[in-house]
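Quick one:
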Amino acid sequence: MTKNASTSRDFADQLPRNLLANIIYFLANIAIGIILVPYFVSNLGVAAYGLIPLATSITGYVAIVVQSLNTSVSRFLTIDIQREDYTAANKTFNTAFFGLSSVILLMVPVVIVLAWFVPSIFNVPIGQERGAIFLFLGVCASFLIRSWAGNFTVQLFAYNRLDLQNLVNLTNLFVQTGLIILLFALFGPDLGLVGGAYLAGAVVASGVSIVLARQVCPHLQVSILAFDRTRVKDLCGMGWWVVINQIGALLFHSTALIVVNLLFGATSAGKYAIALQWVILLVAIAGMLAGVLTPTILSYYTREKTDSLILITKSAVKLMGLAMALPIGLVCGFAPQLLTFWVGSEFASLAPLMVLLTVHLSVNLAVLPLFSINVAYNRVRVPGVVTLVMGIGSIALAVALSLLT
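Output:
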């Protein structure tokens, strides 16, 4: 059997396990997300609850450079490992490891300053100012720690072990959720405890990712001697345009909650966050389903199997559209009943907002599998520019419509 045929068989054998792991993580995410929202609203109040998704959206901007560089590293490291060029793989890994570590250290003071001024920037309920600071500090720190651990989870990605990646994600989710409930029971509801739980979950999950990476890929070792400046140019060349794309995506998807908080107050932001929760869950589902195919697409690109790449992405787009149509339709069709059963009849009036936020996903999420092709071929400039323009337009419309209507 040829090397290419063996690789194809291994990837085909791994696909069901990856898909099953994604489904398990998705179900756990859905269940915990649904349970935690009414739990937070009843214990913290709707205004304070709105700060939690706001904090997670802000961390997207804090960690945007790190996450974009991780995307670039995943592409180059996967190609090196697929070719069994472990010398090049070690150069890619160590260049990314020390480079990302430096970037994260530079971001630490930014996180501290941002967290300190949160009560001055956003509308925070009276008496929750200190808790809000610790919430933002803990959530931002957890994102940076997980981003640093991405140096090791990309190894799992390169070997198409998305099942192990999901094990790391489940560890983070369970530790985080369990600590929130435990700390609330011991010390009472407080936003600062939520930040602490996020931080603890990130530390434990990062430790698990390092152990798994060493087991799956013993060929890669941390060594400053393997740092290669020529690799920096390759990684940053692609990473820069991924940064542009990520900024646009965040402007497009994550600014509405910030606009609502600044223009309408913490209570309105909390209500908006409730309606937004199902959008976040649906986007997460689609992202996980699309992510299953990314290592396979990179493998086909490495082996120059263009026809197979086209065939699998065409099928993936059709299947994604069909798979997401049912849950999106159910959320839109039963929005009032869903809100009443989930968080109470007093929030049923949010149903039209939930429909507006959700209905367009039936088209937008179907095309997610195509974006892996841009990464594989290192053609991320045009998508980055288009996404940035759309993101700027989105925030401009959000502010304009809020002020004019």
